[in-house]
Amino acid sequence: MAAASTGRYVRVGIAIAVIAILPWIVPSFAVFDLIFVGAYAIGILGLIVLTGMNGQISLGHGAFMALGGYVVAVFAHALGWPYWASLPLAALASGALGIVIGLVALRLAGVYLALATFSLAVATPSFLKHYKSITGGFGGISLDSVTTPHGIPLDPERWLYYVTWAVAGVAFLVTALLVQGRLGRALRALRDNPVAAVSFGVNPYFYKTLAFAWSAVLAGVAGAFFAIATAYVSPDTFTFALSITLLIGAVLGGIMSFWGAIVGAIVIEFLPLVAQQINAGAPSVVYGVTLILVMLFVPDGIVGGVVRLIRRLAGLPRQPPAFESSIPPAAPIAVDQPSRE
User: Span 10-26, mean pLDDT?
Assistant: First the structure.
């Protein structure tokens, strides 16, 4: 156990070092792309909690991102608030919407929940277009570009890069602390065996709604950074395709691992660019074929495939996915079940 914890800390330390160094060794345009990778990673992390840990499929996280982005844009444009002051409000607004959608989602499961959340993603652009006095309608809202605070020796791109990844680091840390305790055990139990989980005192209404709310908070923060990075929001920024893209990133990266959020974010940001270089006439074909190949050969995502390969080369036994219970799902709940939420 100690060796596993040490290895985990080493991997995290290496990741932090790489993130800190990258802006100084890549071209300036790539720094801008890496800002979006950080935003995507935050949004995908929410799906890993909601879908990977709890089994609730959402195709509507683009709507939460839209809310977060528009909250930042409206407060900055209409009231002149600094971006960083409105970022918590974006998280709170998205979390509140997540609670509402989570309460509705309690009555749905599987494909029905996916379709319900997909309808939310489809309706969001139309909704934004009909309130021009607030959202700017079809034209959206233009914002001032980010500037580096006085006294910090960084250009605006690198400054925003470090802020984005610092917030992403906090999001990952807080999420890890949340899911390591009773919350994580309850979510896994409800995913694996809902009947057994309820019999051991797990309140599905509380935990499923909480998972949806936290996932929405992360999506709202991701949407806020989209707005800040582009200095512009419009209904076309947050179409239903964004929700599909987030889910694709979660599945390709590895929906059972936090590392899958970062890997998936890298894939969905750079794979379309690579596909464009391979075949400028039909990049979507290259993109689609790549997705099919990845799912055929590494169905547990890129992170899962890499872990399996390393363990096989090292002669180690197969390890279950990071969020998959290796014991009956209700058993962990029985350990600390003094009361019900």
Answer: 91
DSSP state of 203: -
Q: Say which CATH class 2-335 falls into.
A: mainly alpha
**Dihedral sign for Cα atoms in the order 95, 99, 101, 107:** positive
Rounded distance between C-alpha atoms, residue 80 and residue 334, angstroms: 51
Q: How many CA atoms lie within 13 A of 48 on its CB side?
A: 34
Q: Is the pTM above the cut of 0.85?
A: yes
Do 219 and 226 touch, CB atoms closer than 8 A?
Answer: no
The pLDDT tens digits of the residues spanning 164-176 come to 999 999 999 999 9
Structure tokens at 156: 């605006």
- Which DSSP letter does residue 216 get? H
The percentage of the chain sitting over the pLDDT mark of 90, rounded to a whole number, equals 34
Contacts of 204 (CB under 8 A, 6+ apart): 106, 190, 194, 197, 198
Half-sphere exposure of 144 (CA within 13 A, CB side): 12
> Cβ distance 53 to 184 under 8 Å?
yes
Residue whose C-alpha is closest to residue 178's, from 220, 217, 214, 212: 214
Least confident of 25-39, 117-131, 231-245, 320-334: 320-334
Among 55, 52, 56, 42, residue whose Cα is nearest residue 102: 56
Query: Which residues make Cβ contacts (< 8 Å) with residue 96, sequence separation at least 6?
Result: none
Q: Which residues contact 315 (CB under 8 A, 6 or more apart)?
A: none
Helix spans in the chain (H): 2-21, 28-47, 61-78, 83-105, 110-129, 132-135, 156-179, 182-192, 194-199, 204-230, 240-253, 259-278, 283-297, 301-313, 331-335
